[in-house]
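Our consortium's second objective concerns turning raw sequence data into structural hypotheses that experimental partners can test. To show how far this objective has progressed, the report includes one record in full. It was chosen at random from the queue rather than selected for favorable results. The single chain below, 305 residues long, was entered without modification.
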Amino acid sequence: MAQDPLDVSGLEREINLYISYLKIEKGLSPNTASSYYLDLMRFNSFVLDKKLDYKNLSPLFFQDFLSYLSGKGLSGKTRARFYSSLKGFYKYLYKNGRVKEFQFKDIEYPFVAKKLPEFLTKDEIARIINVTFKDGDDFVNLRNRFISELLYSSGLRISELAALKLENFNFEMNFIRIRGKGLKERITPFGLPVKEMLKKYLPLRQNLDRNNKGFVFISKKGAPLTRQGLWKIIKKAAILAGMTKNITPHMLRHTFATHLLEGGADLRSIQQMLGHSSIATTEIYTHTSISHLKNQHLKFHPRNK
């Protein structure tokens, strides 16, 4: 018996069950699960507006929905995310006997033009790391420099940086244990500059950690810095360094990977340090490296003068 198309409980209930499944059984992070939920709820509104039964939708209907998103000005990357959200959801419904057919199997994947990641030069990185926050004391200046240094030296995501605790550091072996996307753990090394900064930063930090929660990056009141707070520090450092580029924390992660590749690191090692589940995701940095080589050839080879 088909559900009443005006009854929101049917599809919405299945979406909520699916999101719970992703969080509990698949271990997806709250941020990723939230993105899936928002995508699927937008799809839910589209289905209700058309007054159709979500169990009996044709492949053409899904194509119409993706075209509708395109008409709303959503980028190819965003439409590709919607595609993944819907495909995963309907595969879940099919495997659990909620729908008779996996209607999504013949639907075309939205084309997404690969955008090469932006990265900084070694000089630009040095300027950001060594900037002085004139309105800050020794603790604030050292903490803010350490934030930039660690993002660049270890390729962390901003969410990973915000969640970082002292217990994640192995000070003897010089590595950090990171819990990344999907709660997957990885080991990321850190170098001498990070170790030297830690030696100076930790005594200052210890005086402010009144709650003893162990977060590495805290405010002067002892509260852990949020992703937004860390992001603002990076933006301010870039402005104080006289940068005209739109600097983001993720750009430092891209720079970490690009500079490693330019220095001769193998792609598999970079993949492990970044926490990419697929080598294909890491391969985009080979294109960046090729672009860099072409620019260097154009700039320095005498036949190009």
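The partners drew two points from this record. The first strand starts at residue 169 and ends at 170. Residues 1-8 have pLDDT under 50 and may be disordered. Both points have been shared with the crystallography group to help prioritize constructs.
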